[in-house]
Amino acid sequence: MNFVKIKSPDIISLVVPFYNEEDVIDEFFATVRPVLDAVPDSDYEIVCVNDGSRDLTLEKLLKYSIGDRRIKVVDLSRNFGKEAALTAGLDHARGDAVIPLDADLQDPPHLIPRLIEKWRDGFDVVIAIRSERLTDSYAKRSTASWFYRVHNAISDVKIPGNAGDFRLMSRQAVDALKLLPENHRFMKGLFAWIGFETASIEYVRQPRAAGTTKFSGWKLWNFALEGVTSFSTLPLRVWTYIGGLTAAFAFVLAAYLILRTVIRGVDVPGYASIFTAVLFLGGMQLVGIGVIGEYVGRIYSETKRRPVYIVRKFYQHDTQRREIDEPVSARSSA
Ligand code: UDP
Ligand code: MG
User: Fold this and answer.
1) At 174, is the secondary structure helix, strand, or coil?
2) Given pLDDT bands bounded at 50, 70 and 90, which one contains residue 233?
3) 3-class secondary structure, 290
4) Who contacts 164 (Cβ-Cβ below 8 Å, separation ≥6)?
5) Domain of life, per the record (predicted)?
6) Ligand 1 centre distance from Cα of residue 215 (Å)
7) pLDDT tens per residue, range 51-86
8) Where are the domains of the chain?
9) Closest ligand 1 atom to Cα of 85
10) Which atom of ligand 1 is nearest to the CA of 18?
C-alpha cells in the first residue's frame, strides 16, 4: 500500500446493515455524514443494506439516497440475517477502505477518522476493540467472554475478544474476504481468517441510539454454534477420545468385577449403578450424535450452493426517482 501514486482522494465505504431500524436512521445520517465530510483527502459512499425490514426503513433510506448520490441502498428480498447483509454490503462497496458499521450507532462513528489514520499509516486492517461494554448486560458480557475463550481455545483462527464487526479493511483485504465461498458466514471469524497487517484502537461501547436489539439469547447461542462449527472440528474429533476413555474405564471396571466375583462370589445388587451407567452413556452418545448433526446439517446446506443473499433492487444516484413519493429533504442535499 505504500507505493507513491498520483494523489486522488481515497474513497471510504461505510457498509451498514439495517433491519427494522426506522427509529435510528435520521440520527444515523445526522451523526455519520459530518464525520465523513471532515475526513481530509477523501470522498465517501454509504452502502446501506436493507435486510428485509418490515417497517419504514427502506422508505427512509431511499429518502436519503435520492438526495445524495453517495448513499446507496441494497434492498434484499427478505431478512437474511446480519452476516448475509454485511456480505451483501461488502460486495457492493467500491471504496479503497471499507468500514462495516452498525446502524444503531453502538459503534461510535467519531472513531472513523482514527481508523482511517491507521490505515493511512499502512495497516490493511484496523480493528476497533471494545475496552469495556458496560452498556451490555452482565449476562451478555460474561457469555460473550466465555464464547471467545472457548472459540479461541479450540480453533486455529483466533478472533480477538471484544472486537465486533466494526473495523476498517483495505480494498485488498475486502477482495480477499470476497474469495471465501462459504454460505455460513461467521463474519468475525472470516475477518480474522484473511490475516493481513492488523492494528487496533480501543473504544467504549455505546448504548443503542434508538430501537431494540435484534439478537435474542437463542439467536446468540446459534451464532456461537456457527462460530465454533465454522472454524473448528474439535467438537467432532473429541468423541474419539471420550469414547476411548470410557471404553478404557469399562475395561478396568470389568477386570475388577471379574476378580471380585472370583474372590467373593456373585452378588446381585447393582441395579442403581447399571441404570446410571446406561443413562449416562446413552446421554453421551446422543450428545455426540447431536454434535455430528450440527456439522452434517451445515455440510448439507453448504452443498446446496445457494447464494448468501438475494438483492431485490440496488438503488443509486437518483435514477430510481419514480420509486419515491416524498420530496428530497433540505438536510440531505450535501
Ligand atoms: N441486523 C441485520 N439483520 C438482522 C439482525 C440485525 O441487518 O437480522 C443489523 C441491525 O440492523 C444492526 C446490526 O445488525 O445494524 C446490529 O444489530 P443489533 O444492534 O440488534 O445487535 P446488538 O448490537 O444488540 O448485538
Ligand atoms: Mg446494536
Assistant:
1) helix
2) confident
3) helix
4) 102, 107, 128, 130, 188
5) Bacteria
6) 7
7) 999 999 999 998 888 878 889 999 999 999 999 999
8) 10-215+307-333, 234-303
9) 7
10) 11
Residue 323 has pLDDT above 70, yes or no: no
SS3 annotation, 85-119: HHHHHHHHCCCCEEEECCCCCCCCHHHHHHHHHHH
Q: Which of 16, 19, 46, 308 gets mutated to test ligand 1 (max ligand atoms within 8 A of its CB)?
A: 19
pLDDT digits (tens, 9 = 90+) for 107-148: 889 999 999 999 999 999 999 988 776 677 788 888 888 888
Model pLDDT, residue 275: 78
The single-letter code of the amino acid at 101 is L
> What are the cell numbers at 208?
443503542
- What class does CATH assign to 10-215+307-333? alpha beta
CA 136 – ligand 1 centroid, Å = 14
pLDDT by residue (tens digit) across 276-309? 888 888 888 898 899 999 999 999 989 998 899 9
Indicate which residue's Cα is closest to atom 2 of ligand 1: 82
Ligand 1, closest atom to CA 101? Answer: 15
Angle between helices 112-120 and 25-37 (to 10 degrees): 40
Residue nearest atom 25 in ligand 1 by C-alpha distance = 215
Amino acid at site 51: D
Cα–ligand 1 centroid distance for 194 (angstroms): 23
Name residue, grid cell 475486502. 174
82 C-alpha to center of ligand 1: Å? 6
For the residues 147-170, what does the mean pLDDT come to? 87
Q: CA-CA-CA-CA torsion for 121, 127, 129, 135, nearest 10 degrees?
A: 120
Q: Please list every protein residue whose CB sits less than 6 Å from any atom of ligand 1.
A: 17-19, 21, 51, 79, 81-82, 85, 102-104, 106, 213-215
Whether residue 97 contacts residue 170, with contact meaning beta carbons closer than 8 Å, is answered with: yes
Q: Residue 326: is its pLDDT beyond 50?
A: no
Counting residues of the chain whose pLDDT is more than 90, the rounded percentage is 37
Q: How far is CA 255 from CA 15, 249, 251, 278, in A?
A: 64, 10, 6, 19
